[in-house]
Write a structure and sequence with these properties.
The structure is a homotetramer. In chain A, helix 5 packs across helix 6. Chain A has helices at 11-14, 16-21, 25-35, 55-60, 77-88, 103-109, 204-217, and strands at residues 2-7, 40-45, 63-67, 92-96, 116-128, 142-152, 162-169, 174-183, 186-191, 228-229. Chain A has a domain at 2-110 and 177-217: Rossmann fold. In chain A, 25% of the residues lie in helices and 30% in strands. In chain A, a hairpin with a 2-residue loop joins strand 8 (174-183) and strand 9. Chain A is of the alpha/beta class.
């Protein structure tokens, strides 16, 4: 399995508070813990040629992990369309935190993907609501994060195919913070935590969920459906 | 309730076989039977200024019914985006037959919306699989259409929120031919039948389903959610 | 529309704190505000003959509202089965608060319907997560209840057909507190609030949701499906 | 992984046409092809003590495959309840063909599970409608069975969590013939084909789907949720 971890990698360059937590970038930390799994992991970032997502790279990627925040608009329409198309063709996609507003996720959802937010160093508790799901494997009743950004409902997404985590926030809000979607032949997992100013991606349970998510979104070897004009399989009497 | 029936209205101009069946256009027949309900119905077509869908028209439309086929690409990106946005803002949308490939529907679904098709004058039988749904009100176990175009699976849509009709085709295929989706604050009903060379929209049961669909997709008066930065509702201890 | 409000009506007899809040019983208050709608409302309670739910009563009931808590086991198996069967035959069902553990709801869900709970006079905030749903009509972004019993995840129900409200609790839990289910030809709405020691059913927003719920679960006039041995509709070549 | 294949095993004893096709019973054939996977497979049948499903057997079973037809009522209430409870506690369940009417499946669904049927040696074609699903792995666009019993809609089940196959029948009906459900901590896969008078379980694609199904329903190692009275995780100000 080939996994590509994509990161905007801008906060890390401009905000010392972020680069102190993630000296090799958010993508670096995520690639590190995914490397513990039996997978091949590379990274790609916004400022690379074609954002590091050439046709060749995309063609060989089984699962793409996406983190973006302040520069969604700098992702070219062309690359965003290609990534969307690869998901429809079967590439798995793990969408993290502020990537709810990425071009790719919005194109795949068809909605605004808007939400409430607040940066107030508050506590988040992610409750498991689907304990049968492989993405929760090894996770207890909840994951507690001492300080995170708040995301609150209404989260403007289509009703998820599966709802896996619900977040409680100290300031009084709730959020559908783990959810799966199937689009075309691709599987998508959205996972809420991971604001750049907190060490969330060092949390072992958060890592476990992302690992589980990567495994869950990877494609099956079911043949691609055939579309278009079709000959009848039975005799038509007309 | 203000309903606008939008039609491409091209087959009617170029194909005598179509204009014979629908001398006032497909939109004319649909508007006629919707007029039997206690609603205000107008029509709009592709070749009108802004396709008949100005900001003023859209702002006052509660439900938009959409039929298109051969000229999807001639709908401007601008109008398609505005219509999508109005759906997200609460306008109901009924998507008929070949409008599965309309810009608006594809933008809202996020998938290719592709399918199998065949024009072979074959029989279609639409089975009710959700007899609790208001859209099936007054419909028996199935609707039978002696001659229709075939649409077959795989239909590349997100898993519908509700699956209402399943079609059987004489040539050996099946299709999810009645399905609902919620996107933003808007409700969407896709209904399969209605190829331009058949008198499908004169069928009383098809008319009943479309009437039911129009009623079902109309907006509620729930206030719009508030998005963006939010003050805490509870004290945060940090 | 005939609505029957069923109540266990035991706390009201044994606990002065409850009878002070609900001197005519929880059913009395619910029947009162439903009477404001254009419906016919009656009540039935556990200690009546057949719990007030004779075959005649059930046959004429369009929507049944159910509140129970400490005496679920005293509902006879026979009546519970009859009520379940009437739901499958099309009677709407609104299940309130501790009725999550009623025989009828558990039979219809097929799961334990278990949850976490706590009586600690804590704040509950019910967030709307499906603003398109008629059950949220007229409700703002959330409903706030100053003091309620806590119900927390994991709530052992099947994934709801529609998730409408999510609760935030002061003590740190979340809950899927408004959810719909279709079973057979019947529609079901579960709504969480309403512990007997709080005046929750006097809250105008809670009342509005229950009124909306009653309207939503009422049956359509779609004919009943036919089951069993069926003659072919097409020629079989074998 | 421990798999138990349960079979009523009555047609095989009373109907030579069945025993000729399945001389070692339907369970024998299913156990044989599951043995090709890296799993431990045993069988159990109705006429064994406790139907072969003692507490010890159930406790060690990861996945139960169930086939029954004419003797559903002979399964004791006690065993049916125990099996249901084991599913809620995490045992996977694959429900085949006429087991739609088994006590266990009906208890888990909460509905009548009724349907249309016909024995007319007709053709069935099962179309894949969810090509992302692991249960379709390795299966093409459809599976064709030359002769099978017909099952037709309306199929009285709750809306499935995932719809995987849709059947077309020569006689004019359609059916949701592959569907998944989660109940409690257990996963359930219903798969339609397999009437006792046809050699359906020798079909390699049918076998592949059942193998995939067994793998999909097996439990995760997510800890069991805790239910009941719960201490607050946060300070409550009242």
């Amino acid at each position: 399995m080939n996994v590509v971890v994509w990161n905007e990698n801008r906060h890390e360059k401009s905000n010392p508070a972020v680069s102190e937590i993630y000296p090799e970038g958010i993508h670096g930390v995520i690639a590190d813990f995914l490397n513990e799994e039996n997978v091949s992991v590379t990274t790609a970032t916004l400022d690379e040629e074609q954002h590091g997502l050439t046709d060749e790279v995309l063609a060989e990627t089984d699962v793409l992990v996406w983190w973006g925040h302040k520069a969604h608009e700098e992702v070219t329409e062309e690359v965003a369309e290609k990534v969307k198309q690869r998901v429809l063709d079967g590439m798995g996609l793990v969408v993290l935190h502020s990537a709810h507003f990425s071009k790719v996720f919005k194109k795949l959802m068809g909605t605004s993907c808007d939400l409430k937010w607040r940066e107030a160093d508050e506590k988040e508790r992610l409750w498991v609501v689907d304990p049968t799901h492989p993405i929760t494997e090894g996770i207890g009743e909840y994951i507690e994060l001492e300080k995170e950004e708040m995301y609150g409902e209404h989260f403007d997404i289509p009703a998820p195919d599966e709802l896996i985590f619900l977040s409680w926030f100290e300031g009084g809000e709730v959020f559908r913070s783990g959810a799966t979607f199937k689009r075309g032949r691709g599987k998508i997992f959205y996972f809420r935590p991971g604001h750049e100013t907190y060490p969330t991606y060092y949390n072992k349970e958060v890592q476990k969920v992302i690992k589980n998510g990567v495994n869950w979104v990877k494609n099956t070897s079911t043949p691609a459906p055939v579309y278009g004009n079709a000959q009848p399989l039975e005799t038509i009497n007309n």
